[in-house]
Amino acid sequence: MQFLENFKPEIIIASPGRINFIGEHTDYNMGYVLPTAIGNKITFKLRKNGFESRCNVYSIGYKGFSLNLNEISVSETEWENYVLGVLNEISKLSDKVRGFDCTIESDLPLGSGLSSSAAMECGLAYALNELFDLGLSKIDIVKLSQRAEHSYVGTQCGIMDQFASVMSREGHVILLDCQSLEYKHIPIDIHPYKLIMLNTKVSHNLASSEYNTRKQECELGVVTLQKKNPEVSSLRDVTREMLEEGKTELSERVYNRCSFIIDENNRVFEVAEALKENDLKTVGSILYTAHEGISKLYEVSCPESDFLVDLTKEMDFVLGARQTGGGFGGCTLNIVHETKVETLIAEATLAYKRKFNIDLEAFEVEPSGGTSAENLI
Ligand code: GLA
């Protein structure tokens, strides 16, 4: 694209991916989550280009595209919808955006359950807010990015990913109540352990449609349980007793989905407590239990993720592991003794290659800060 010659950005924004310690699929059930941003990020470089409405966007690894701010609509090219969706949502809040040029670069593996989608949406929204002085708060950015995902990308996601990408603090996890959006940063120190991600490199294309189906199944559970418990407005309000009492009115599938969510919400508090006490053994064993639920009750795992989690159960230097993110592939999160990281990676790489003929990708992550401006060079 022509603008790339002599491109001098006015601002640089780094927008991170996230991991979630625990609390999977609880966000759209108005429950609790425990995520944090990681060091892997998407970097946006922007400048105003002097045009009223013409914008040029170039993503390294994808083709660039140009757009007119007055003619925003859903594109057939999937990744463009992250940009268009954000511009569409911003246009409802502000009329201050004008023509801009933007480059996008990423060291965040796409489709790996580390929330590259939210990093895209929030990073662009954050950058436009700075460049055009839109006066949006961080929470505005989080919410408009979530709406962009709903309307232009088509996943009816909860708020966790966008919240974690924008609001995280280095060395902390966020205990977030997805109903009230009240949150607490909890410091974590997992020394002498490390957080190692094993990327299955599969992202089954079921992910988006099945995600929306899970949400509907949970909603069906709520509607059914409401008959005896009118005070219930989401699965967050459902107790184990209510669920057992209503069991005969639910299909086995919907019962299992609800059962998982109730347990998963409780696990968020158990893990938050254990992290405060530096009790990593407890954290690890809860991660294994959670993965069982992800796989058997919520059914959002896949053979590749199950294999990698099971493999580590034989290793006494791994305290716990589970698939992280929306599901059907992506990464597993592993708590591994620092002296044995190489051993884990070597053994898992070999076994995974033998079983699935896929080259595993492994990397360390650390709890990092949220979206921020970087210095211009
Ligand atoms: C995806 C969604 C989140 C959340 C997770 C599962 O990452 O974007 O809102 O529901 O899946 O915990």
What is the percent of helical residues? 25-40%
In which order are the strands of the major sheet placed? 5-4-6-3-1-13
State which percent range the strand residues make up.
15-25%
Number of strands: 13
Number of helices: 10
Instruction: Please identify, by name, the CATH architecture of one domain.
Output: 2-Layer Sandwich
Largest sheet: 6 strands, mixed
Element-by-element helix/strand order: EEEEEHEHHHEEEHHHHHEEHEE
Beginning-to-end CA distance, first to last residue:
22 Å
Radius of gyration: 21 Å
What is the SS-derived class? alpha+beta
What binds here, in terms of ligands, is: alpha-D-galactopyranose
Low-confidence stretches: none
CATH C-level class of one domain is: Alpha Beta
What can you tell me about this protein's structure?
With 377 residues, the protein is α+β, with helices and mostly antiparallel strands. The chain has a domain at 2-188 and 369-374: Ribosomal Protein S5, domain 2, CATH 3.30.230. It has ten helices and 13 strands. Helix 1 packs across helix 3 (138-153) and helix 7 (252-276) runs antiparallel to helix 8 (280-297). The two termini are 22 Å apart. The mean pLDDT is 96. Alpha-D-galactopyranose binds at residues 20, 24-25, 27-28, 115, 157-158, 160-161, 325-326.
